[in-house]
Design brief:
alpha/beta; 10 helices; 43% helix; elongated
Length: 290
């Protein structure tokens, strides 16, 4: 799910980040009130699509004061500076903003707004997240994957509450990520090496999580890719019915390396062979008309 969990028993100089701080903003300072354990949620991926600094720009407090057990969101592309005691324990969840169902404006609103340990949600989630960080980081698949799944869902719920949204109206956290994945597939249909592994790697998620996204939609990654390639081949054959491009060339263009395999799956999908489809639309589509 693109989740990294960092557990530190020492006093690091800075929070884990995902790049150099955004140059147009001065990072705020997080000040600890006492020694103890602190929880952080570093949100990745919003840099470069950030809003301006006008009336609707991000609010960046100069100092944010934290108590032990507090949960604090921060932008991983511009981590806040720390002013903490020598002895404290830090547990950080680094997660893509798409996985939380957020956009860049949401990240700006969440950054530097702590969830106090003594609040209603804080008292419930702070010990849960603390224990989950220790357990997930030491567990093997599939237990570790399930714990990571739960962690992201909990953090998405927490973000929803902090943004003041109605949880029942909040879209599934996977929806923005799924849309980006489908767009990526469409842009790379002609790539011979398009596979679940390359798709997952491009979106910083595990192949297991990618398969789960498509499983929830009642299909598989491979079937979706094949379906989209067949649709493009069908359209290409219709457009080029009067042209000189061969069926094998069309199939090869859209990622089918075997003409025999292409013909078989095309017939299974549309009830006729590629040549029958091409000949049918060629006879039935007069020049100059759709």
């Amino acid at each position: 799910m693109g989740l990294d969990i960092v557990v530190s028993g020492t006093a690091p100089a800075e929070l884990p980040g995902a790049g150099r701080p955004y140059p147009a903003r001065r990072a705020h300072r997080l000040v600890a009130r006492d020694s103890g354990e602190y929880l952080f949620v570093g949100i990745r991926g919003a840099a470069g699509v950030r809003g301006g600094s006008g009336a609707h720009g991000p609010r960046q407090p100069e100092d944010v004061f934290l108590g032990p057990g507090d949960i604090c969101f921060y932008d991983a592309h511009g981590p806040a500076t720390l002013d903490f005691p020598e002895r404290f324990r830090m547990k950080v969840f680094l997660v893509p903003y798409e996985s939380l169902g957020l956009d860049a404006a949401d990240v700006a609103r969440l950054a530097g707004t702590p969830v106090p340990r003594v609040s209603r949600l804080g008292s419930l989630l702070s010990p849960f997240l603390s224990e989950l960080a220790d357990t997930a980081s030491s567990s093997r698949p599939p237990v570790g994957d399930l714990l990571a799944w739960n962690a992201v869902n909990v953090l998405a719920t927490l973000a929803t509450e902090r943004l003041g949204r109605d949880a029942t109206a909040t879209p599934d956290a996977r929806t923005p990520l799924r849309a980006r994945i489908l767009e990526f597939i469409d842009l790379h249909l002609t790539d011979e090496d398009l596979s679940p592994e390359t798709i997952a790697g491009a979106h910083h998620i595990s192949a297991r999580y990618l398969h789960r996204i498509f499983q929830d939609e009642g299909t598989t990654v491979g079937r979706w890719i094949q379906r989209r390639r067949l649709e493009e081949c069908r359209r290409d054959l219709m457009i080029r019915a009067r042209g000189g491009r061969t069926i094998a060339a069309v199939a090869n263009r859209w990622g089918f390396m075997s003409a025999t395999h292409f013909s078989r799956v095309f017939r299974a999908a549309y009830g006729m062979s590629p040549s029958e489809w091409r000949d049918t639309v060629g006879r039935g589509t007069p020049t100059g008309r759709r």
